[in-house]
Write a structure and sequence with these properties.
By secondary structure, the protein is α/β, with parallel strands linked by helices. The protein has one domain: 3-Layer(aba) Sandwich (Rossmann fold). Helices cover about 40% and strands about 20% of the residues. α4 runs parallel beside α5. The radius of gyration is 15 Å and the shape is globular.
């Protein structure tokens, strides 16, 4: 059986940027299924890894990012999906979870065969991360009901591209097998 890691992308957020209100609506829809997927992955997946934007704050780390997100207006979107103290947490500076991060090294060291992408934003960070995974030859699953979007049409197109052009499996959370 392949070793699988759930990757939770950019869910530690303050939502204080342009287009945030559009994203907030979508995140509100995915929080419950994503929370369920994270809980299941903690016991079934090899790893649960959070990869999160640092918002240009080069002194940021997990505790500070979580604290800022929980102090914000949209605390309810972060509370149930925030990383535990034991969770692997990687800070990224760009759209892809691979660019400039130790993620490849961690996946290789842990013998991870497949990654499962969840989080936000479908048509940005999820898409670019799926492309980078494809280029690296990594088997990838994207969980359609656990990824949030800003633009529904672009999100749908992105999911189709990930499936058709990148060979990603696009499934609902209940169908993910760790």
């Amino acid at each position: 059986m392949p070793k699988t890691a759930l990757i939770v992308v950019d869910m530690v957020q303050t939502y204080d940027f342009e287009d945030a209100e559009k994203l907030v609506e979508s995140v509100a829809e995915v929080v419950e299924p994503l929370t369920e997927l994270i809980e299941r992955a903690k016991s079934e997946a090899e790893l649960v890894i959070y990869v999160n934007d640092n918002f240009g704050e080069w002194h940021s780390e997990r505790g500070k990012l979580v604290e800022q997100a929980l102090a914000g207006e949209h605390r309810r979107l972060v509370e149930s999906v925030k990383p535990s103290d034991e969770a692997l947490f990687i800070v990224k500076a760009r759209h892809s979870i691979f660019f400039g991060t130790p993620l490849d090294y961690i996946l290789d060291t842990e013998g991870i065969d497949e990654i499962v992408l969840s989080g936000q934003v479908t048509e940005q960070c999820i898409l670019y991360s799926a492309l980078d995974a494809h280029v690296r030859g990594r088997s990838t699953t994207v969980v359609r009901d656990c990824v949030a979007h800003i633009d529904p049409a672009l999100a749908d197109a992105s999911l189709k591209m990930m499936e058709r052009n990148m060979g990603a499996a696009v499934v609902d959370g209940r169908d993910v097998r760790f």
